[in-house]
From TrEMBL:
Origin species: Streptohalobacillus salinus
Protein known as: Cof subfamily protein (Haloacid dehalogenase superfamily)/HAD superfamily hydrolase (TIGR01484 family)
Stored InterPro entries: Cof (IPR000150), HAD-like_sf (IPR036412), HAD-SF_hydro_IIB (IPR006379), HAD_sf (IPR023214)
One GO location term (cellular component): cytosol
Superkingdom of origin: Bacteria
GO molecular function terms attached to this record: magnesium ion binding; phosphatase activity
């Protein structure tokens, strides 16, 4: 019997290849884990309201979305934390002076400050997101996450964020000028802890796979934290395991490494 009870999987660059495909080996690994009684959660920066197609393809019902601001098992919401409206106002102000657009997420929609730039359309096309609207001030108390679009590493420093806020580049080729905002108190790790508390599990009973800097708290928290072979190089110190790349059976090989398969 496996000692592991829950598996957390990042989506882009972990479950999905860079051309948005799911390998047969990934599907087989997830199914095998489920057959052994392991709860499988997608744990992603993507909005939960855009995950139905992936969830259905994988036979998964459990989700951490919005970089950890939201977690649910089935239809039961375990955890939900909106962003500080003052921080949102700060980002909106700075973005307007930097020629950046923002993508803000609430539980129902993807809220763009503009749809005009080509890079906005490229982002929408790559991720296949469909529930898109213009951001309006009345949404400010319901925001679960933000992506800063079309920024450089130098420009991102102009946001002068608090010490417990950092930027995670979207770890997808061609889209790495987009940065997810990660809060120290709201991240995939805090959502994973909420899930563990809900199921009365110890961190040693959990496994996680990721490839981006928004995965660092999650990988640090669990008993077996895997950095994918295609992971951002700065993520490696936060993982205690490594595996092959997403397009080289990374999840399958990682689970085999710890005898889940």
């Amino acid at each position: 019997m496996t000692p592991y009870k829950v598996l957390f999987l990042d989506v882009d660059g972990t479950v999905l290849t860079h051309d948005n495909k799911i390998l047969p080996s990934t599907k087989a690994a997830i199914q095998a884990a489920q057959e052994k009684g392991i709860h499988v959660f997608l744990a992603t920066g993507r909005p939960a309201h855009e995950l139905d197609t992936i969830l259905d393809e994988l036979g998964i019902i459990d989700v951490i979305g919005y970089n950890g601001a939201y977690a649910r098992t089935g239809k039961n919401i375990i955890y939900k934390k909106t962003m500080d409206p003052k921080l949102i106002e700060q980002f909106l102000t700075v973005a307007s002076t930097q020629d950046h657009e923002l993508l803000l997420y609430n539980e129902q929609a993807n809220l763009f400050t503009s749809f005009e730039p080509d890079y906005v359309q490229a982002f929408i096309k790559h991720f296949g997101i469909k529930k898109n609207e213009y951001y309006r001030p009345e949404f400010i108390n319901d925001v679960l996450g933000i992506t800063v679009m079309h920024a450089t590493e130098t420009e991102i420093k102009n946001y002068n964020t608090p010490d417990d806020v950092f930027f995670s580049p979207v770890n997808v080729p061609g889209l790495m000028t987009n940065f997810d905002i990660i809060q120290g108190a709201v991240n995939k790790g805090t959502a994973v802890q909420a899930v563990l508390n809900y199921f009365n599990l110890d961190a040693s009973e959990a496994i996680a796979f990721g490839d981006g800097m928004n995965d660092r708290e999650m990988l640090t928290l669990v008993g077996e934290g895997f950095a994918m072979g295609n992971a951002h190089h700065d993520l490696l110190p936060y993982a205690n395991q490594t595996t092959t790349a997403v397009d080289d059976d990374g999840i399958y090989n990682g689970l085999k490494k710890i005898n889940v398969l």
